[in-house]
């Protein structure tokens, strides 16, 4: 298809809230910062209200209403553990309607959500558009350059396809600086660009988080297996009640059962601590979603923002 046709089609999809591109920092690549998965139990009848309040916070990237022992599953980011602790205790823990929280730290991301491709392109198409793999560069603590990076990432989060001229206007940085710094951030993997779409487009309406406990000597092999599954959107080594978490997107519930059977065959010592089926996604990497999974707003992601009660 010609570029003009694709551009018009993309404009229609974004206007309807069916697809969007966002940007966020990679904690694993930056070399500093912490990400946590926070399970929240709420009073009956207060789940939607709690989710709505927390959805406006720049520290909370994603919010899902889930089945199981918790009512909400949050993805939370901060630049240092003390800020994360304060946010969980002084913000989440004090929201009216919250009964209790349980926090698991992400030690390492094995498969990142932006890499999910199930069924979108065939191997030849992927090869045709593939760019170079991100370079593995040493992390560095935030400084003056970190201030520039923060400004670019926060601005680009609203629209990952924002033109350089508009980024320059929003950040006050010269266009040449914007272009050069973004190229460096993308090549290093510190900046993540991610395309998301509503379930009506993806055809994967069933999403489930598996919390798994494995023997230490089998953890890496299981993590690699999950990372290689086309249904895996996210997989992380965690520190908490489970040592591995995997977020799966499938078309039907029987598909999930088949994956669990294969998991038990390959790794018979695995214990599934919990299965959390997503009933509704309230916020996804900064995007506010309606009941149909369409984007209708955006809250800038800013893990650098200090939390003050």
Outline the fold blueprint.
Elements: H1 3-15, E1 19-25, H2 27-30, E2 34-42, H3 47-54, E3 60-66, E4 72-78, H4 81-91, E5 98-111, H5 123-129, H6 144-158, H7 164-171, H8 175-188, E6 191-197, H9 199-202, E7 206-213, H10 219-227, E8 232-239, E9 244-250, H11 253-266, E10 271-284, E11 287-289, E12 295-298
Antiparallel strand pairs: 1-6, 2-4, 2-5, 3-4, 3-10, 5-8, 7-9, 7-10, 8-9, 10-11, 11-12
Helix pairs in contact: 7-8
Report on this model:
The chain is an alpha+beta fold. Helices cover 35% and strands 31% of the residues. The strands form two sheets. It has an eight-stranded antiparallel beta barrel, surrounded by four helices. A two-stranded antiparallel sheet has the order 1-6. About 3% of the residues have low confidence.
The rough form would be described as: globular
List the uncertain runs: 135-144
| Strand fraction | 25-35%
Distance between the termini: 52 Å
Q: What is the CATH architecture term of the domain at 30-115 and 198-298?
A: 2-Layer Sandwich
What letter string, H or E per element, gives the SSE order? HEHEHEEHEHHHHEHEHEEHEEE
Count of extended strands: 12
Overall pLDDT: 88
**Could you estimate the helical fraction of the residues in percent?**
25-40%
What is the rounded Rg?
19 Å
Query: What can be said about the biggest beta sheet?
Result: 8 strands, antiparallel, barrel
- Could you name the CATH topology of the domain at 30-115 and 198-298? Alpha-Beta Plaits
């Amino acid at each position: 298809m010609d570029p003009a046709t694709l551009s018009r089609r993309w404009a229609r999809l974004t206007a309807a809230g069916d697809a969007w591109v966002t940007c966020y920092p990679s904690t694993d690549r930056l070399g500093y910062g912490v990400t946590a998965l926070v399970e929240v139990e709420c009073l009956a009848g207060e789940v939607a209200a709690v989710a709505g309040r927390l959805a406006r916070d720049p520290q909370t990237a994603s919010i899902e209403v889930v089945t199981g022992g918790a009512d909400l599953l949050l993805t939370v980011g901060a630049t240092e553990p003390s800020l994360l602790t304060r946010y969980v205790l002084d913000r989440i823990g004090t929201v009216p309607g919250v009964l209790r929280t349980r926090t698991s730290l992400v030690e390492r991301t094995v498969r990142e959500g932006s890499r999910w491709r199930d069924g979108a392109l065939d191997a030849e198409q992927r090869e045709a558009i593939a760019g170079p793999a991100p370079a593995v560069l040493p992390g560095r603590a935030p400084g003056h350059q970190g201030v520039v990076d923060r400004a670019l990432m926060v601005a680009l989060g609203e629209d990952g396809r924002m033109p350089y001229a508009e980024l320059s206007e929003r950040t006050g940085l010269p266009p040449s600086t914007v272009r050069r710094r973004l190229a460096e951030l993308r090549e290093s993997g510190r900046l993540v660009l991610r395309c998301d779409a509503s379930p009506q487009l993806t055809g994967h309406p069933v999403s489930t988080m598996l919390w798994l406990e494995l023997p230490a000597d089998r953890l890496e092999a299981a993590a690699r297996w999950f990372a290689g599954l086309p249904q895996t959107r996210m997989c992380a080594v965690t520190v908490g009640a489970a040592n591995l978490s995997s977020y799966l997107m499938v078309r039907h519930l029987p598909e999930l059962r088949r994956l669990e059977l294969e998991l038990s065959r390959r790794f018979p010592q695995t214990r599934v601590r919990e299965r959390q089926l997503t009933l509704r996604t309230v916020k996804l990497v900064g995007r506010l979603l309606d009941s149909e999974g369409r984007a209708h707003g955006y809250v800038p992601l800013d893990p650098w923002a200090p939390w003050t009660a």
